[in-house]
Amino acid sequence: MMMVRCFLGPSAIEGIGVFTQTDIRKGALVRLYDSRFDISYEKEELTRVPRHFREFLERYTYEHPRDPEYLVLDCDEGRFMNHCELPNVDLSNPVKGVAARDIKAGEELTCDYRALSLHVADFQPSRHRFGQVIGTA
């Protein structure tokens, strides 16, 4: 779960991103895995859910920090944090993410996906459409 006030907005990196509402000092706690709020799924559960939900889970979950048989879905905006080679949030400790540098209010929060997925970043096409009308009713 995010430990700072944040909001979602259009991202220059990929579709939608999570942005901080306040300045964050280097070393400050930004994100925390909390089993009371973040949802865990058995990996094998992916084979038993409808395809559209499996695709959602494949995109927005990461490996459980303590149990490799489970995936975690963040309960809040954290699931929209985008990848960056030089991220401003350090997730090398999968239980908590800290600011890798000072971060200004309004700045997009980024992480290195390899820190959450056994060092392999799997990039998928965007699921988000801004300003587009799909079909007619």
Name the beta content range.
25-35%
Radius of gyration: 15 Å
Question: DSSP helix count?
Answer: 1
Structural class: mainly beta
Assembly state (oligomeric): single chain
Average pLDDT metric: 86
Shape: globular
Low-confidence stretches: none
Q: Give the beta-strand count.
A: 10
End-to-end Cα distance, whole Å, is: 37 Å
Q: What percent of residues adopt helix (DSSP H or I)?
A: under 10%
The main pleated sheet reads as: 3 strands, antiparallel
Biggest sheet strand line-up: 3-9-8
Q: What's the helix-strand series?
A: EEEEHEEEEEE
Describe what this molecule looks like in 3D.
This protein has 137 residues and is mostly beta strands. It is 7% helix and 26% strand. It has one helix and ten strands. The chain has one helix spanning 51-60, and strands spanning 6-10, 16-20, 29-32, 39-42, 61-63, 70-73, 82-83, 89-90, 96-99, 110-111. The strands form four sheets. The protein has a three-stranded antiparallel beta sheet, with no helix packed on it. The protein starts with 5 loop residues before the first strand and ends in a 26-residue tail after the last strand. The model has no long low-confidence stretch (mean pLDDT 86).
Write the layout of secondary structure elements.
Elements lengths: L5 E5 L5 E5 L8 E4 L6 E4 L8 H10 E3 L6 E4 L8 E2 L5 E2 L5 E4 L10 E2 L26
Parallel strand pairs: 7-10
Antiparallel strand pairs: 1-2, 3-9, 4-6, 5-6, 8-9
